[in-house]
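Dear colleagues,

As part of the handover before I leave the project, I'm documenting each prediction I ran so the next person doesn't have to rerun anything. This entry is a single chain, and its sequence is reproduced below.
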Amino acid sequence: MENYPDRNTASFVGIYQQKASEQFVMNYVRPQENGYKTDIRWVQLYDKENRGIKITGLQPICFSALPYTAEDLDPGNTKKQQHPSDLNERKFISVHIDLSQRGVGGDNSWGALPHSPYLLKNNQYSYSYIVEPILK
């Protein structure tokens, strides 16, 4: 399931398998960034011919893999897509690999910032990962 730094206590370390098209959370009122996974050690992504890549963090990493671009989910002030049904799946998967994101917050009907441990306070962060080709 998707999880974020301040919303991941029920997301246990394990090996999970899902299609990229199943990563998108359809039951949000309006499309937004989602499907994020925290504290990942490695992730493998395959195409229909079972060719793939394995991304291994040199420290825990976070990722998302969706059939939409970030702009599809949040096009700025225009917000032309109002419902998930307004989106058209891309013919590619957008993969985002990062060290972390700020927590979701929202302890008071989604107006509050995340608690201090879940804010990104540094001006600079460093992380590393290895990308290697694989065959299933």
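The longest helix spans residues 70-73. The chain has a mean pLDDT of 89.

All the best with the project,
I.
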